[in-house]
Amino acid sequence: MYHSTPKQAESEWDVPLDVFRDQIRSLIDAGVRFIPFRDALDERYYGDETFVSVTFDDGHESNLDAFDVLASVGVEPTAFIIADWSRHGRSGYLSSQAISTAADRCAFGSHGASHTGLSDLAPGDLRDELIRSRAYLEELLQVRVTTISAPGGRLNRQVVAEAEACGFDVIGSSVELANGRPRNPLHRVAIRQVHDASHPARLATASRSYWLKRSVRRRAVGVATRILGEQGTEILRGRLGRR
Ligand SMILES: [Zn+2]
Question: pLDDT tens across 60-76, in order?
């Protein structure tokens, strides 16, 4: 999961284009094969070999150069678009014209209509957000749009069920793990400015036990945060305060 890919990075979510190019090159050198995100629930990609999907969130204009890098090595990425930002021509984001032109080298999916956290919306608003975001791309591109990534990674079971009911077959989360089985929502790992040219290749060739450890650690942190949030913070505060 990438965000902006400008020539010069500014925010922590930016990956400079040169680094991006080297990251794709090192994935290829490591023998990694790529699949489009829309195919990422296909059972045949869940054997011993690891497959990688390249995705971009938010529809940054700077991604056009990254699409060219990928086209030159035969990799089809998926860019998740915020419908209202694109429709209204928000500066720095892909316009409807730019999306139409790039459709020969990039697949497009939804990233909501307004970039609101999907799990924060009331049921009626959620449905409207999903349908509106899909309609924008389908009218523009005249193809079926079946993929979505959740703004801010804000997802829950109800959102996944509603997205599937609205025609989104493949749903991306922001949980930074590998996918051991073909099930929505699919985990995605954010690549950020701190990551060097070999980082994605190291992840793509990491062992099952590496990902298992990451998964266990993630669950442990989740449990600790829940406990601290509800009771532990009070207890800790009380103990430390009385010293
Ligand atoms: Zn986003």
Answer: 999 999 999 999 999 99
Q: How far is the CA of 115 from the centre of ligand 1 (A)?
A: 6
Measured in angstroms, how far is the CA atom of residue 161 from the centroid of ligand 1?
Answer: 20
- DSSP bridge partners of 81: 110
Centre of ligand 1 to C-alpha 58, Å, is 5
Ligand 1 ion: residues within 5 Å (CB):
57-58, 151
Q: What is the pLDDT of residues 75-114, one digit of tens each?
A: 999 999 999 999 999 999 999 999 999 999 999 999 999 9
* CA nearest to 106, candidates 48, 162, 61: 61
- 4 CA distance to ligand 1 middle (Å): 10
Q: How far is the CA of 175 from the centre of ligand 1 (A)?
A: 14
Query: If you measure from the C-alpha of residue 187 to the centroid of ligand 1, how many angstroms do you get, rounded to a whole number?
Result: 15
Going from the Cα of 111 to the center of ligand 1, the distance in angstroms, rounded, reads: 7
Q: Which of 178, 153, 179, 150 is nearest to 163 (CA)?
A: 150
For residue 126, what pLDDT is reported?
98
49-63, pLDDT tens digit by residue?
999 999 999 999 999
Which residue(s) pair with 93 in the sheet?
60
* pLDDT per residue as tens digits for the range 184-231: 999 999 999 999 999 999 999 999 899 999 999 888 888 777 777 766
CA–centroid distance, residue 152 to ligand 1 (Å): 6
